[in-house]
Amino acid sequence: MRRQRTTPTGFARSLVVTVLGLASLCGLSGGPKSPFVPMLFAPVGIAFAAFGKSRPTRQVFVTLVFGVAYIVASLLLFPWPPIPVPHLHAMLVVSIVMSTTLLYFGVTGLAAAYRSTASQLESMRLDVIHGAAHRTAELESVGARVAHEIKNPLASIKGLVQLVHGSPGDAERSSLRLGVVLDEVARVERVIQAYLTFSRPTADLHRAPVQVDHFVSDFAELLSGQALRSNVELTVSCPKFAADIDADKLKQALLNLAQNALHAMPQGGRLTLDVSHDAEAFELCVIDTGHGMSAQELKKVKEPYYTRRPGGTGLGLVIAEGIVRQHGGRLLLESELGVGTTARIHLPKAAP
């Protein structure tokens, strides 16, 4: 049978009822001379062990006082004849055995409960320690990675600025060098923004009714320049419908997926944004014809800091999946080496 748990209040009430029952038994079997009188001390002893100096203990003790008063008064209320000696001895033996049994189960049960509680508290303490150590290690890892990724572009910026400062008369070369400086500064900004987005809480979701076809069309327009420079053909397929989404955040998730797709096609290819929907949900697919991923890479690609691209943060997919989950959806990846990758974003049309 499944063991039922009881509350401290329920346990105290059961002890009070036990004292009352035993007092009644004593009153009906000889009053103060009853062989069952020793049994009264078993539930009281258990109460002392369980609750110490507390209200439940006082309740049990007051019940005992009233029980003893009833036992003494029972001589006047119930003038029973004396119990025959053989019967008295047998009842005394039964009383001792039952008292010992009550104490055994009560005290051993309390000891087991205390051990279990101590074990659970120790387990919780270790979990807290391990969690704190894990978070500290993560923070150290993030800090080291940010420092490493920012160190290189800062060194480049410093060197180029020194060159420009050392040759102020060469305007053309200075302009080229300053252009590289701007690119490196933008790279630093992207690294910092990626880590800020990864660490920032995602509770601030602002949904609003959005025409998804317009949203996808605007996103494709935003992506068209980079696709053209990468020699990538961009195609869009999206029916007209509306949904409640956070357009800015979903655009950020799509941009991370599209950037990954473009980097997977260094020699050019085709990037497709394909959208379908039904009455309750819609699916937005980002499909590329890049080099694809193996099954092992596909398992690791959603892990934080895992990246196959030099200079990448390894957080793009993590951020994208976090945004999708925040919308109540899911992000699925399908990939095949030499064929390409499909990222499927499945989202509800309304807030879940």
In short:
The chain has 352 residues and is an alpha+beta fold.
Describe the fold and architecture.
The protein is α+β, with helices and mostly antiparallel strands and 352 residues long. The protein folds into three domains: 8-126, no CATH class; 142-199, Helix Hairpins, CATH 1.10.287.130; 208-348, Histidine kinase-like ATPase, C-terminal domain (Heat Shock Protein 90). It is 62% helix and 13% strand. The protein has helices at residues 8-27, 41-51, 55-77, 85-166, 171-199, 212-229, 247-263, 295-300, 316-326; strands spanning 208-211, 232-237, 242-245, 269-277, 281-288, 330-336, 340-348. Strands 2-4-5-7-6 form a five-stranded mixed β-sheet. A two-stranded antiparallel sheet has the order 1-3. A hairpin with a 3-residue loop joins strand 6 (330-336) and strand 7. Helix 6 (212-229) runs parallel beside helix 7 and helix 7 (247-263) packs antiparallel against helix 9. It is elongated. 23% of the residues are buried.
